[in-house]
Specification:
This protein is of the alpha+beta class. The protein is about 45% helix and about 10% strand. Strand 10 (about 405) and strand 11 (about 410-415) form a beta hairpin. The strands form 4 sheets. A 5-stranded mixed β-sheet has the order 1-2-3-8-5. Strands 4-12-9 form a 3-stranded antiparallel β-sheet. The protein has helices spanning about 30-35, 35-45, 65-70, 85-90, 100-105, 115-130, 135-155, 170, 175-185, 190-205, 210-230, 235-240, 245-280, 280-285, 290-305, 335-340, 345, 375-390, 455-460, 460-470; strands at about 25, 50-55, 55-60, 160-165, 315, 320, 325, 330-335, 390-395, 405, 410-415, 420-425. The protein is globular. It is built from 20 helices and 12 strands. It has a domain at about 1-95 and about 310-360: Uridine Diphospho-n-acetylenolpyruvylglucosamine Reductase, domain 2. Bound molecules: protoporphyrin IX containing FE (HEM).
């Protein structure tokens, strides 16, 4: 390299091409255990933009807050869409690249090009009933989340009024899955078996591939059902807003929704629970108002973004960025986790403060920021709130710095959340209220309210069998 940097300051732009830089692998054991040290080392070596090797494919990792914002706010200069990737067009991305399968599914998060704007508009429209606080569907969603939370807590309580539990496996993972089933309009608990396949896909174990096939087939079947008989659910609203979607395209969008809801919302809930228990616990727990939970969540999402790196964008033209020139068609991965540690950002957020800033990038920024922020925050806040209402005591069964994490190139979250609990007296067997999983197409007569998923069917489902098997109880 021709130039040298210290403290991230540049003394000239390096015009070496990405493929000639032979960058270091990013996804190392260090990255898995202490990602912040890896980001800092890269920042020291390269400044705000660093060349990295992503499982054999070179890319630029954006570590600087200012540079991240610049990219996210300029969709023309840095479009998404794999068709913009020069190395892929030139055949330089191996066919068996491990990240290929998750990026080649052409849904709204990945897509660029002329089809994108109408798809995004349709997403916004389809999410609206669930996010607009005054809308009856948003109220039903909140009631459903509370009911699902109660079902799960009651199940944990079958191990006894006091005991140990893994609140990740027994609560923050299944709860969003049940919410996803509600959003997708699966009838009753019929979707449970298919949704468990989502876990197998996300965990990328040996059974991931057949699970993905089964899941996509189920989603295609669901999509066909909604086309034939629309309901008051996300797939039907998306179809109404974008009638041109093929069944295959709709199934891909549903897959995207399922992944986002079931993984990222669960991660956010688990991290928030840890923050309430072990962070400024007393302060937060003592005043667990909805607003305080939201504030805690904002701090958590800022310090531990569920999406640690965003899917790639591509330079539309040769562009100087940080200390390098990014060539047209080079992939750039914006890392909010690294950008939040950039002194430019971090120095303005006191680590001990319980008050956070809204200037963080954890929901994205610019035209492609998360359209479901309100939905995700509501589900997580209701889930966390209900937990602290029903458990009079919760403490971590491991020191916070020993909790196990799982990470992928895109996300980072707790692998498990072992706690010792005590149920609040009188709430052990609290029956779930009767909210709505999904409404049928025909309007219900006034006052009858939609039914809960049939409890017996629920108990027979593989999700329930799995959760029942996790009950551990006594300390
Ligand atoms: C804690 C939960 C969540 C977090 C932290 C989160 C975060 C994000 C972020 C950072 C982006 C922008 C990515 C980028 O710029 O490349 C994004 C995009 C997106 N998110 Fe979320 N999200 C969450 C939950 C959800 C949920 C539950 C849904 C669906 C119901 C959803 C749907 C989407 C969609 C469709 C996009 C793509 C938007 C576009 O490209 O126009 N997200 N999300």
């Amino acid at each position: 390299m021709e130039s040298q940097w210290g403290e991230g300051a540049s003394v000239g732009v390096d015009s070496t091409r990405l493929e000639e830089l032979t960058p270091e692998p990013l996804l190392t054991r260090d990255y898995e255990t202490r990602p912040s040290l890896v980001y800092e080392r890269l920042r020291q070596q390269h400044g705000p933009v660093a060349p990295v090797d992503l499982l054999g494919v070179p890319a630029w990792l954006v570590l600087g807050y200012r540079e991240a914002l610049q990219i996210l706010q300029d969709d023309r200069g840095w479009p998404k869409g794999l068709e913009n990737w020069r190395a892929r067009t030139d055949g330089d991305v191996p066919a068996d690249w491990p990240l290929g399968p998750s990026l080649e599914v052409n849904h709204v998060l990945i897509q660029g090009g002329p089809g994108y704007p109408s798809l995004r508009t349709a997403w916004d429209a389809a999410l609206k009933p669930f996010q607009d606080p005054g809308h009856p569907q948003a109220k039903r969603l909140k009631a459903a989340v509370t009911a699902y939370a109660d079902e799960l807590i009651t199940l944990v309580g079958q191990g006894g009024g006091t005991g140990v539990a893994d609140l990740s496996a027994q609560y923050s993972r299944p709860l969003p899955l049940m919410v996803a089933s509600h959003l997708l309009g699966f009838p009753g608990s019929q979707g449970d078996d298919a949704l468990m396949d989502m876990w197998r896909v996300l965990d990328a174990g040996p059974d991931a591939e057949p699970a993905l096939e089964r899941l996509l087939a189920t989603l295609a079947e669901l999509a066909a059902g909604k086309l034939a008989q629309p309901g008051d659910d996300f797939p039907s609203h998306l179809l109404a807003a974008h009638p041109g979607l093929s069944l295959d395209e709709l199934a891909r969008e549903l897959f995207m929704l399922l992944g986002m809801v079931s993984d990222h919302v669960g991660i956010l809930m688990s991290s928030t629970v840890v923050e309430v228990i072990s962070g400024d616990g007393d302060g937060v727990r003592a005043s667990l108002s909805a607003g305080m939970i939201r504030e805690t969540m904002n701090r958590v999402v800022m310090r531990k973004p569920p999406l640690v790196n965003f899917v790639p964008r591509f330079a539309a033209a040769d562009t100087p960025l940080g200390n390098y020139t990014i060539r047209a068609g080079d992939p750039v991965w914006v890392s909010p986790a690294a950008a939040h540690a950039d002194p430019l950002f971090a120095d303005h957020v006191a680590p001990s403060s319980t008050i956070s800033t809204r200037a963080h990038l954890s929901w994205g920024a610019g035209p492609r920021q998360c359209p479901a922020r309100e939905l995700a925050s509501t589900v997580a806040a209701v889930g966390v709130g209900r937990l602290f209402e029903r458990f009079s005591h919760l403490e971590l069964a491991l020191p916070a710095d020993q909790l196990p994490w799982r990470s992928s190139p895109f996300m980072r979250g707790l692998r498990s959340l072992p706690v010792r609990y005590e149920l609040a007296p009188g709430t052990e067997r609290l029956a779930a209220p009767r909210p709505a999983p999904a409404l049928p197409a025909a309007p219900e007569p006034e006052g009858t309210g939609p039914a809960l998923p049939d409890q017996l069917a629920r108990q027979r489902s593989s999700l329930w069998r799995y959760l029942t098997g996790l009950i551990r109880g006594g300390r």
